[in-house]
Amino acid sequence: MTTCSAPGKVYLFGEHAVVYGEPAIPCAIERRARVTAEPRNDGRVRVEANDLSLDGFTVSWGDSVEDRPDIDVPTQLVEAGMGYVDEAVGQARDAADAPDAGFDITIESDIPLGAGLGSSAAVVVAGIDAGTRSLGVELPPGEVADRAYRAEYAVQDGQASRADTFCSAMGGAVRVEGEDRRTIDAPELPFVVGYDGGAGDTGELVSGVRALREEYGFAADTVTAIGDVVRRGTEVLRGADPSGEPAPDLLAELGRLMDFDHGLLSALGVSSRSLDAMVWAAREADAYGAKLTGAGGGGCIVALDDTGGTETALDYTPGCEATFRAELAADGVRVEES
Ligand SMILES: Nc1ncnc2c1ncn2[C@@H]1O[C@H](COP(=O)(O)OP(=O)(O)O)[C@@H](O)[C@H]1O
Ligand SMILES: C[C@@](O)(CCOP(=O)(O)O)CC(=O)O
Ligand SMILES: [Mg+2]
């Protein structure tokens, strides 16, 4: 039996544009998904996903038709819900050269689903690492990231960047631009997350941006402008002392860039009323900056604030269900028990 965990993330900047080869900087946060894999010798797969609830039902499933969850939700939604774990199992079998391996898989996660904090990437990364290790094969984190990317790419119909999965596998702050991916030095940034209790459909939101970008030159320019924000942000971070407290002027400049990024994402149609309300509550509470994180449509915003002001303001914002500080997770995927 092997248990591995992997962190979720917030985007400092660059989501959506990263899908078209622009750079992005996601940062791993201390909210993790834990996946336990226990090989079975009958070749079957059984999954217990207690935090995956569809229409109020907790989901567990197996690999035969009779073993699919018998709940009153559209098949498509159920298939989509199970897709990431099924793909992770496929990648683990392939990496361990054990196409017929069976597993009992248990998933626990404190990352809200579909909310822009990268729950899918964390589950896939931890799942591939736990699955392969339980078969006696240890993959370097870079290979776990590659395989997790292939899994996300398959579930999201070819609409995925390497950003979430690389960040979850490596931990810390990372910069991804097409095939180029690296960990970067960053100071401990005072992230505050606001969560509206909702979710967005990543595939649908990415498709929406793709369509706008194809229809309008100015939408394509908006995507490029997000890339420009990230290029500027990269320069700003390069000038920072990664070991010390971040200086107020550094936070002010990163915050201004986050605000700009949110405006561009909003122009691309991926914000929502509740995300905007939380962003404005943070700004009015004197956060350095605030933006949606991840695919958008609903879910989470991330603000930069080293005082308690934003958390208090979000607590009183209608539509905000939860607020928490998110510390940078130095560890990416790691073994918890074996
Ligand atoms: N705890 C979990 N157990 C099983 N599957 C999960 C879990 N958390 C996330 N997932 C999978 O990830 C999907 C959400 O991923 P996505 O829409 O990309 O949003 P995000 O990555 O922003 O959380 C869920 O529908 C489910 O398939
Ligand atoms: C919109 C996108 O840039 C980020 C999606 O993040 P999340 O799954 O919503 O956490 C898509 C991608 O990079 O694959
Ligand atoms: Mg995701």
UniProtKB/TrEMBL annotation:
Enzyme class label: transferase
Q: What is this protein called?
A: Mevalonate kinase
The function of this protein is:
Catalyzes the phosphorylation of (R)-mevalonate (MVA) to (R)-mevalonate 5-phosphate (MVAP). Functions in the mevalonate (MVA) pathway leading to isopentenyl diphosphate (IPP), a key precursor for the biosynthesis of isoprenoid compounds such as archaeal membrane lipids.
| Pathway participation | Isoprenoid biosynthesis; isopentenyl diphosphate biosynthesis via mevalonate pathway; isopentenyl diphosphate from (R)-mevalonate: step 1/3
Per UniProt, what is one GO molecular function of this protein?
A: magnesium ion binding
GO cellular component: a single term: cytosol
- Indicate the residues that form the catalytic site: 164 (proton acceptor)
PANTHER family linked: MEVALONATE KINASE (PTHR43290:SF2)
The segment(s) forming the GHMP kinase N-terminal domain are: 85-172
What superkingdom does the record give?
Archaea
Record-annotated Galactokinase N-terminal domain positions: 4-37
GO BP terms, alphabetized: galactose metabolic process; isopentenyl diphosphate biosynthetic process, mevalonate pathway
Lineage, highest ranks first? Archaea, Methanobacteriati, Methanobacteriota, Stenosarchaea group, Halobacteria
Q: Which family does it belong to?
A: Belongs to the GHMP kinase family. Mevalonate kinase subfamily.
Record NCBIfam families: mevalon_kin (TIGR00549)
Which HAMAP family does this one have? Mevalonate_kinase
- Species source reads Halorarum salinum
The Swiss-Prot or TrEMBL record lists the needed cofactor(s) as: Mg(2+)
SUPFAM superfamilies associated with the record? GHMP Kinase, C-terminal domain, Ribosomal protein S5 domain 2-like
Which amino acid positions bind ATP, per UniProt?
112-122
Q: Which gene encodes it?
A: mvk
Q: Subunit details for this protein?
A: Homodimer.
> Which residue numbers delimit the GHMP kinase C-terminal domain?
251-306
The record's listing under PROSITE patterns reads: GHMP_KINASES_ATP
